[in-house]
Amino acid sequence: MATFLYKLGRLSFRRRHLVALIWVALLTLAGVGAAGAPAAGNSSFSIPGTEAQKAFDLLEQRFPGTSADGATARVVFKAPSGEKMTDPGNKATVRETVKELSDGSEVARVTDPYQAKAVSKDGTIAYAQVSYKVSGMELDDASKDALEDSAQDAREAGLTVEIGGDALQAVPHTGSSEIIGIAVAAVVLVITFGSLVAAGLPLLTALIGVGIGVSSITALASALDLGSTTSTLAMMIGLAVGIDYALFIVSRYRAELAEGREREEAAGRAVGTAGSAVVFAGLTVVIALVGLSVVNIPMLTKMGIAAAGTVAIAVLIALTMIPALLGYAGRKVRPAGEKGKLLGRAKAQDAPARPNLGSRWASFVVRRPIAVLLLGVVGLGAAAVPAASLELGLPDDGSQPTSTTQRRAYDLLSEGFGPGFNGPLMVVVDAKGSDDPKAAFTAVGDEIKGLKDVVTVTPPAPNEAGDTATITVIPGSKPSSVSTEDLVHGIRDAGTDVRADTGANVLVTGSTAMNIDVSQKLNDALVPYLVLVVGLAFLLLIVVFRSILVPLKAALGFLLSVMAALGAVVAVFQWGWLSGLMGVEQTGPVMSMMPIFMVGVVFGLAMDYEVFLVTRMREAYVHGEKPAQAVVTGFRHGARVVSAAAVIMIAVFAGFIGSSESMVKMIGFGLAIAVFFDAFVVRMAIVPAVLALLGRKAWWLPRWLDRALPNVDVEGEGLRTASERGDGDRELVRA
Known about the structure:
The protein has 735 residues and is α+β, with helices and mostly antiparallel strands. Helix content is 63%, strand content 7%.
């Protein structure tokens, strides 16, 4: 592989006009396709295999036109102090608001609080339920504006009015966080390379790669039902790895120049060595992202595949466009160790090379491996302790900041009707196979009334055919509580007994039940996903490093960093440690998607650092250095680059901590702290300590396996002979 990539790098350097033209053409083509594509809505949200989804599907069949999965809004009214919602003036204002809400083209129905008995016992709070024909993410801005305008009119009449539900759910948009990440990346790159030109290359290629990937997603969104949220993960990951991969190759190019090689030869060698590491690092990220399909949530699968495609583009750009741009840059990209006018004068040619910080740190670790290893493992273990108390759930309006209307509506409903009113359960009774459907409906209602934590059970509401009915159940606890989850399981267990007696099938759905089912589905998929991703990457790393213990150490180190990061997330978002500093207004369960999302994203990024850092060590070892010296050599060449890449990644993710959305805040913090633990504790401390303790055993491989594995030559051993013959170009032409 190294020889092929070496030739590709030299060809791209020489034919830079053609290579640049191809990538610019692809960017233009993708941009034109995106501009001409129909506007993407949100991809259809379904959770195959869950009981809540089966109930939604049944409602669509048996109650046509009810839009069971459509958006809902609860417009909550509170009377001024000393007044009641039943006062004539307040009642007139509410009914005028209900009339205004009913005029929308996407509105399916609006309930009148006074007819639906949706007024609190003390008469101070009432609510109107608005049901829409489409989901909250697909709702037009005009419908959202009409909803807010109606609420504002009621406020002007003297009432306190807040809006809850998912109707005001906003489509995620990229904001200043990406700009902050790019700005920090630019500063780090300038410090690393000491040159604006060298620093600009990774940024330029990363933006081109992300532009092609996101534009392609936009162009195909309508045809493939990708939706407006699919590009978010693709942009975040594509930007981060695009900068990292280009950074690796530019850094190796400068190192080759420092050894006295001509620029074309240096570009070829940079792509042949660092480019090999980029290919395998990219493969681990792709495996992790595509592996999200194991969860069997279509939206998550599409996001993973789209992000994986953007990563693949980032790899191809790093292998071809970076050497082409290096050809354009010429002498403006200086050898490693030389600084331009921006950060200082060039060092004297005969000045002795001084050990850099990476070399000094590696030498320290090699001398005291046991102490460093124990300190790193104990530190991460301590950080992981809170993960033992991990509680998973999905966010609802109760986790929103108190400044939002959704949260204020949530609090008003809890005040007037009880905390469980914010998470009603819809029980669907399918009595098509029952001899007496009405008796079955009554039996289900009676059975539910006898369960713990039930406040209200509405009478069954059958469909026109009389074979299916819905029953609304109001729990006594808030939607995200363990008690409500137990109630959902209790209703389902009771439904089994009812089915045995009456032949009717009982299903529980609604947003609360859907959240519980999604959480369970994600929990069940975590172990298979972890086994698949880590297993495939383990096999891939065996091929890369030709070792058993090095990939095993890489996988175990990754698990340490993920557990420590989950512990930090629990401490901040569930226990409330440093919550004020992080802007966390409401603690609660950790988002169910967080563990599996962290495993996928962080594993791929962690293997980037592992491959790049340890490949340098492997290369030095293969070229004759002793194991301990190879560790120091790997750090001398790779520590600065890996540290810069990690800081860039942390900056990109940390930019999302400032979001007002609790879910986005949690993802940003979790990924940022995970990259910090993995890059600076695992890869920079635990990895060299373990390799120093193992010595030559680290690179041991059974002879039979050594013969069976393909020789991919990531270290670039074959480049010595090819470059000395000087026939690389002739071989490329013949090929």
